[in-house]
Structure formats: structure tokens, C-alpha cells
Design a protein that fits this description.
The protein is an alpha/beta fold. The protein has one domain: TIM Barrel (Alpha-Beta Barrel). The chain has nine helices and eight strands. Mean pLDDT is 91; it is low at 10-24.
């Protein structure tokens, strides 16, 4: 019995050590989330083009590789064996017109890939948003991948409080499924990724996103993405003008956790 207990303790210790280190050699990748680049519309989520270019230059000078989000997704899901050790990803939410007018020239200059998370109800409708033609132009550059940000960017917490259970379930289905269908059709692409509006997610939303055909979803939880995170809640860092370059460097290094 003593020998059995000893062996059992050794097995438990080995399992603990293996579990604790299974992700230790995996690369952690900061995903940056931008929103607005229009200097005429200042706000908490606006960043100047000068600051954005300063950040891209810093990444280049410090040996970082901006990789497509799709490459990171493949790596996190295990279908891609490796990515550069100092990888970083750039995403932009909402589909604002400032992406086309202000961000695009800098992206071309530095030749970096960008993923846009857009909500289609605004495209070619809202004055602040891009048009479908502009989104297609961005696709043609080969630098922009366009993915989903729900259909009209609801606050799921607020909607859950005001709607009945059946109404809420219908809303969620519309936000996850109709958005995907419209983007697929309008842009002749395949939508597989979604960014949660306001960073709001829960078990139910994650399950419904998987059911709707998304392979990965993204929050704004302020830490690097890695294989230990839930596939339907991979974290990103919000990038805003108020962050100085030291703070940006800490984010790029994966040192900042909100």
C-alpha cells in the first residue's frame, strides 16, 4: 500500500507539472485594437495618425513582426506550427471612414496586415462609416482582412435586461448570423472571426458564436492572446491616444494586464 501511495503521488505530481507547463513554450501575442483615426473627431478611442505611425516605426525598429490575425488564429488552433517570436497583430473595430482616409496610407507605407471588425448595418448607411466600395478597395490591397463585429453593435448586457428570453435569443441570432451572411455576400469572403461589441461576452454568447460558425472571437481584456485562453474570448489591448510610448512598449511586450 505504501508503494502504491508513493507511485500515485508521483503520478499526480507529474500530471500537475505537465499541465502547468503545457503552454509554457507557447508564444504569447498582443492583439492591438484601434477604433478611430479622424483628428476632427477627438474622443477616448481616437488616435492621431502621427502616433499610429510612431507606433509602427517603433515595432519595426524593435524587431516585431506584424502578422495577419488569420495566421495567429491558425497558430492558436494548432493548424500552424510556428509564428515569429516577436509577433503582434493589428485590428480595427467599427468600420469607420477614418480607416480609409487616414489609416490606409500609413498601412501601405509600412506594408502591415490589418484585420477590420465591422458591423454591416452601418456600412454605406452611417455618415461615420465606410462604404462597401471602400471596403472592397481595402481588400484589393491584400493588406486588409474584414471580419465581423455583429450586425449593429449592441450592448448585450443592456439588451438582456430589457428583452424577454425569446426576444434576446432572437437578437443574438440576428447579430451573429445575419451579420455573417451580409458580409459574406457583400464582400465575397468567408467570415470566421468576430469581435465582441464593448468586449461583452459570456458562456451563452460564446456557445452561440460557435454554433453560428465562428472559429474564434475576441474581447478587449487587456492581455496577450495565447493557447491557454478560450477560443471564443481571446483578449486584445485597446490602443488609444492617452497611452504614451512607454505604455505602448509594455503592451507590445505583453507586460500590461487590465
Amino acid at each position: 500500500m505504501k508503494n502504491f501511495n508513493y507511485v500515485l503521488r508521483i503520478l499526480i505530481l507529474a500530471m500537475f507539472l505537465f499541465t502547468g507547463n503545457v503552454f509554457a513554450d507557447q508564444i504569447k501575442v498582443p492583439i492591438l485594437a484601434y477604433h478611430n483615426f479622424d483628428p476632427a473627431k477627438p474622443g477616448s478611442m481616437t488616435i492621431t495618425t502621427a502616433r499610429f505611425e510612431q507606433q509602427l516605426k517603433w515595432l519595426k525598429d524593435n524587431g516585431y513582426t506584424v502578422i495577419p490575425l488569420q495566421d495567429l488564429v491558425s497558430y492558436l488552433r494548432g493548424s500552424k506550427d510556428s509564428i515569429p517570436e516577436k509577433s503582434i497583430v493589428i485590428t480595427v473595430d467599427d468600420g469607420k471612414a477614418s480607416v480609409y482616409k487616414y489609416m490606409l496610407p500609413i498601412v501601405k507605407k509600412y506594408n502591415v496586415p490589418v484585420t477590420l471588425f465591422v458591423y454591416p448595418s452601418a456600412i454605406s448607411n452611417a455618415s461615420y462609416a465606410m462604404t462597401w466600395e471602400q471596403l472592397r478597395d481595402l481588400q484589393k490591397t491584400g493588406l486588409f482582412d474584414i471580419q465581423c463585429h455583429t450586425y449593429w453593435h449592441p450592448n448585450f448586457n443592456t439588451e438582456r435586461k430589457r428583452l424577454s428570453e425569446a426576444e434576446y435569443q432572437k437578437l443574438v441570432a440576428t447579430q451573429l448570423e445575419k451579420s455573417k451572411q451580409v458580409l459574406d455576400a457583400k464582400l465575397n469572403t468567408k467570415i470566421t472571426l468576430i469581435a465582441w461589441p464593448y468586449g461583452i461576452y459570456n458562456d451563452y454568447l460564446e456557445q452561440q458564436a460557435q454554433r453560428a460558425g465562428y472559429v474564434m472571437a475576441f474581447s478587449i481584456d487587456g492581455r496577450p492572446a495565447d493557447k491557454s485562453e478560450k477560443s471564443m474570448a481571446q483578449p486584445r489591448y485597446m490602443i488609444v491616444q492617452g497611452q504614451n510610448m512607454q505604455e505602448f512598449a509594455e503592451i507590445a511586450n505583453g507586460a500590461v494586464k487590465n
